[in-house]
Design a protein that fits this description.
The complex is a heterodimer of chains A (229) and B (307). Chain A is of the alpha/beta class and 229 residues long. Chain A is built from 7 helices and 10 strands. In chain B, strands 2-3-1-4 form a 4-stranded antiparallel beta sheet.
Chain lengths: 229, 307
């Protein structure tokens, strides 16, 4: 599914690389936690996966396709097969829950009747059917993140990338979101989660990849968080 | 691109314009003012062009043929035979750039003179026949006024021609003026067009900025550049068209009022009638507004919307 070969990423005007010769492989249907101190390179790696950034050197293969060689005009079509989730939810506050989820379909020219069919199903999955017509700004943080999850999965993506999805949430809501991601994984999507949620990582016993100073320092099946904070 | 996609873009453009209502109004008005000045300049140019053309059409080379009574040395105080006169007319007709040739004998010229001033007809009676002091003349009109001197010189070089007259100097001045007006008008049109583009691109830049969050989400969920850009382009086109409509309506109304008034006060001025230009002016302005709007928004999108 994902293959990184000796990937290095150096941002302009910086000396130390954010990623330094990272190689790893994630199989289809895996659930992977990405852990490590702040600034270790987790977000950089995520950005490379959804092609927000290009690697300075090395290759990133997604389903065998080299993302560096993907022309700019093909990037939107790549992203349609991905679901991306952020710490700050990235919702449109003045729109309803339905509109926020529908937005992902609308702006990729999905027909109306398809939208009407798919959005409620996604909201059902995240348990927000009853909030369909609420404005997203009126929801709690946990609910907002669930809307973001619904938006990420409404297209049935093959890969879901979540960058600190629980960073702004209390433990209870954090658990709910992680459970949701696990459910999505069980439905067939490959899931990569960058997180600091120590207790959840330890409890879920998934594959854990630790990154420090731009390098992979640990990669364990059924791993633990492994840091004190 | 689906109809629904266009409908979304249309809706987003309208939403963006109403959300920043004052800004939209301000830029519509400044576009309107630019295009208004532009329209006035264009009307002025059209009219001056019209005047120039009608003056140009009056430019004529008067060719006087030799006669015993004329003083010019090349005439040698000789009378031309009828065959010689006809041969001169034929040679003038054969010159390049000659549009119209009219041969007027001195007899005809005298009759014309009598007709034009009946009170003098009596006095002119005594000048008929061999007493006629006038010359046989050839009136020549040219295809291109710029070439009038060349043609006149060529005619002057023909044997049997006493003198040519074509308003030497005046024609050259007229040409300088009309060319200056053409170039100046074009320059002004380009300048105002550029100003309009800048105004619109600035407005669109603010719209892009106001919707940057939405844009970043659109990119993440896989909207194409064209999908993201389309509503902003529509917005620019709308603002351009609105401004053009105001400018077009105002100038058309003003021109419609002005021309009848001018024709009463200065009836000798050749002016373009409103019916002849207003439709084209309005359509032209609308098209121009749309194009300037599209160009203006593309400029700001290129700079602010790279993937």
């Amino acid at each position: 599914m994902i293959q990184l070969v000796n990937v290095t990423k150096v941002y302009p005007n910086t000396h130390t690389p954010s990623l330094n010769g990272v190689s790893l492989r994630v199989e289809r249907g895996e659930f992977v936690f990405l852990v490590g101190p702040s600034g270790a390179g987790k977000s950089s790696l995520m950005k490379l996966l959804y092609r927000e950034e290009l690697p300075t050197s090395g290759r990133i293969l997604l389903d065998g396709k080299d993302l560096s060689k993907l022309p700019d005009r093909s990037v939107p079509y790549l992203r349609r097969s991905l679901g991306v989730i952020f710490q700050d939810f990235k919702l449109l506050p003045d729109r309803t829950v339905f509109e926020n989820v529908a937005f992902a379909l609308e702006c990729t020219d999905v027909p109306r009747r398809e939208i009407i069919r798919r959005v409620p199903a996604a909201l059902e999955l995240v348990g927000l059917r009853h909030k369909t017509h609420s404005r997203s700004s009126e929801l709690s943080g946990g609910e907002q993140q669930r809307v973001a999850v619904a938006r990420a999965i409404v297209r049935n993506p093959v890969l879901v990338v979540a960058d600190e999805p629980t960073g702004n949430l209390d433990p209870e809501n954090s658990w709910a979101i992680m459970k949701l991601l696990q459910e999505i994984n069980q439905m067939g999507a490959t899931v990569v989660v960058a997180t600091h949620a120590k207790n959840i990582v330890n409890a879920m016993k998934k594959r854990v990849i630790a990154i420090e100073r731009g390098r992979v320092v640990r990669d364990e099946q059924r791993g633990t968080y492994g840091y004190e904070h | 691109m689906s109809i629904r996609g266009w409908a979304n873009a249309f809706r987003d453009a309208l939403r963006s314009m109403t959300q920043s209502g004052l800004m939209s109004l301000a830029s519509t008005l400044s576009v309107a003012i630019s295009l208004l000045v532009l329209a006035v300049v264009m009307l002025l140019a059209v009219n001056l062009e019209f005047m120039a053309t009608s003056v140009e059409q009056q430019v004529e080379i008067r060719t006087y043929l030799c006669a015993a009574s004329r003083e010019e040395t090349q005439c040698n105080k000789q009378e031309l035979t009828e065959d010689q006169k006809q041969s001169i007319v034929a040679r003038v007709r054969a010159l390049p750039n000659v549009k119209e040739v009219q041969y007027v004998t001195k007899h005809q010229a005298l009759e014309e003179l009598k007709k034009s001033d009946p009170t003098q007809a009596e006095a002119l009676q005594g000048f008929e026949g061999s007493e006629n002091p006038l010359s046989d003349e050839i009136y020549v009109k040219v295809v291109e006024v710029e070439q009038v001197k060349v043609v006149a010189d060529a005619i002057k070089a023909l044997p049997g021609v006493a003198k040519v007259q074509y308003g030497q100097g005046d024609v050259e001045k007229l040409l300088v003026i009309t060319n200056a007006i053409r170039i100046g008008g074009l320059g002004l049109v380009l300048l105002l067009g550029a100003a309009t583009i800048l105004t619109l691109s600035n407005t669109i830049r603010l719209s892009v900025y106001a919707r940057r969050r939405e844009i970043s989400i659109m990119k993440l969920v896989g909207a194409t550049d064209w999908y993201i850009r389309r509503p902003f382009m529509l917005e620019g086109v709308f603002l351009g068209i609105f401004g053009a409509a105001i400018a077009g309506g105002t100038t058309a109304y003003g021109y419609d009022r002005l021309i009848p008034y001018l024709q009463q006060t200065t009836p000798f001025l050749p002016l373009v009638q409103p019916v002849a230009v207003i439709t084209n002016l309005i359509l032209g302005l609308l098209a121009l507004g749309a194009v300037l709007g599209a160009v203006g928004s593309l400029i700001s999108l290129r700079r602010f919307l790279k993937v």
